[in-house]
Write a structure and sequence with these properties.
Blueprint: H1 15-29, E1 31-35, E2 38-42, E3 47-48, H2 58-75, E4 79-80, H3 83-87, E5 91-93, E6 100-102
Parallel strand pairs: 3-4
Antiparallel strand pairs: 1-2, 5-6
């Protein structure tokens, strides 16, 4: 587990520009540390949603970015919300949990 937070990025004209911003955020977090004799890798799962995908409101956009972040966590690869694809996996809230989680199908 870990902390989740939202980063708003202004002036992102294209999906490709958002993907570059997501990459920069991920790379800024990635570090390798030595703890005693052990090596610890810090990393982040990052999801983005581009405003050009015409979300109905801010909550819908945040939910799409959250699903993209969980997909990134699952795949360990960069992910920007693909609105049509992610809408096929409805978000749901778990009892007592704050973040939106994506329904996973095998």
């Amino acid at each position: 587990g870990g902390d989740e937070f939202v980063v708003l990025v202004d002036d992102v004209p294209t999906r490709a520009a958002l993907e570059r911003a997501v990459d920069r955020i991920r790379e800024s977090v990635m570090h390798e540390l030595s703890v005693g004799e052990a090596r610890v890798e810090l990393r982040a799962s990052v999801g983005g949603a581009w405003s050009g995908d015409d979300y109905s409101d801010a909550e819908e956009m945040v939910e799409a970015a959250d699903r993209a972040m969980y997909e990134d966590k699952r795949r360990n690869a960069k992910t920007v919300a693909d609105r049509p694809a992610l809408e096929r996996r409805p978000a749901r809230r778990l009892s007592g949990a704050g973040p939106i989680v994506s329904s996973q199908t095998a």
